[in-house]
Every structure is written in C-alpha cells, then in structure tokens.
Amino acid sequence: MKKYLLMVAMAALILGGCTLPTKEQPAESQQPTAPVTVEPGTPETSGQPPVVETVPQPPKVQTIDWSASVQPLVAKMLQADGVQAGSVLLLDSVKNSTNGSLQVSKATAALHDALATNNKFQVVPASQLATAKQALGLSVDDSLGSRSKAIGLARYVNAQYVLYSTVTGDVKSPTLKMQMMTVPSGEIVWSGNGAIQY
C-alpha cells in the first residue's frame, strides 16, 4: 500500500509540473524595480532651440464695393433710348457665374438701392416679388435663370421690363454684366458691363 501511495505522490508531482531546484541552477533573487519616468526636455535644459509652429494665415478676403460697382451701369441704363418714364421694372437676383464664391445677395441689394431714387422706373418691391413667386409656385430664393420664368413673373406683377445681372469671369477680377429686356417682346433694349470695384 505504501508503494501505491508513493507512486501516486510521484505521479502527482510529475503531473503538477513541479521541479525541484538543482544545484546547477541557482534561484535568482527578484527585486522590485522602480518605474523610470522620462520628462521631455525644455529648450533651456535640452540645449535645443524651441520648436516654433507657424500657423498659416487665412486668405485675405477682398470686400467688394457693390454700390460703386452697380452705380455706373445703372446710370447708363437710365439713359437708354426708347424706355418710357414711369415703367415698372422687375429686378432679377444677381447671378454668380464666376469660378468662386461671391455674396451676390449684397449685389442685388445694391441694385435695389441704386434704383430706389430714380425717376425713370418703378421697381417691383421685394415683398411683392416674394408674394408673386409664391403664387406662381416658385421658391422665394429662385433666381430666375430661365427667361420664360422671368417673363411670366414680370407679367404677373405687371412689369414692362426685366433687368438681368450676372457676375462672370475669375472670382479675383470679376465683371458685372447687365441686360434689360422688354416683357411683351423679350427684346433686349440695353446691355452693359463693368469691372467690380473693391
């Protein structure tokens, strides 16, 4: 019985993977090591010049003087031959056909301001124009890209003329082009263009 117990004990030791230290392999003493922290050196302590990050400058945005840009063209348009004084004029929103982004809503506002005190035309008020667009199923922000839309809208508000304005060319040096046409015939009675003023 002792023999079986001894065999079972030996088998348990072998299966358990326990090894006894031998004289050939001395046990290493393990001592805890403190964690090493490395602090980044400041320019004063590391001897290196400080790293300077350059922040890119945003591009300079040139402010367009829309009032100065539209005034000369409006003055020429008011002297156009064959236009009856007191006629109703529909101003289409200024369109941007440049290769960049422009605030053409300010150009449209400048056109309204330039024509506010003229003696030749009665400009369709913005509120009446918005109501007419709604009645015809057009968006209030719809710039009348199609001439047929503009003619239909002009007839609805009883306008005799429509003024189209487009900004074209390179966005850094654009050109303002204007055309005035009669509503009944669609004939262009005046056109002009000029450089944008900054």
TrEMBL record:
Q: Where in the cell is it found?
A: Cell outer membrane
Task: Supply the alphabetized keyword list.
Answer: Cell outer membrane, Cell shape, Lipoprotein, Membrane, Palmitate, Peptidoglycan synthesis, Signal
InterPro entries given for it? LpoB
What's the short name of a Pfam family annotated to this entry?
LpoB
Q: How does it sit in the membrane?
A: Lipid-anchor
Q: Does the keyword Signal apply?
A: yes
On assembly, the entry states: Interacts with PBP1b.
Family in the record: Belongs to the LpoB family.
What does this protein's UniProt record list under function? Regulator of peptidoglycan synthesis that is essential for the function of penicillin-binding protein 1B (PBP1b).
Tell me what this protein is called.
Penicillin-binding protein activator LpoB
